[in-house]
Amino acid sequence: MKDLALAISSIKIQSFIDIYPMKQAFDIGTIFKQLNKPWVKYHE
User: Fold this and answer.
1) How many CB atoms sit inside 10 A of residue 31's CB?
2) Taking phi first (over 0 means left), then psi (-120 to 50 degrees means alpha), and beta for anything else, what does residue 20 get?
């Protein structure tokens, strides 16, 4: 079992379009605007 791969992943390559400025990217956690999926608070 030690010769088996732990995991295999497939990662889509992101193109550098629509990126945040560096300081804003650090605050948000991503440089890509397409990947910015902020948490939303739901009010009942």
Assistant:
1) 17
2) beta
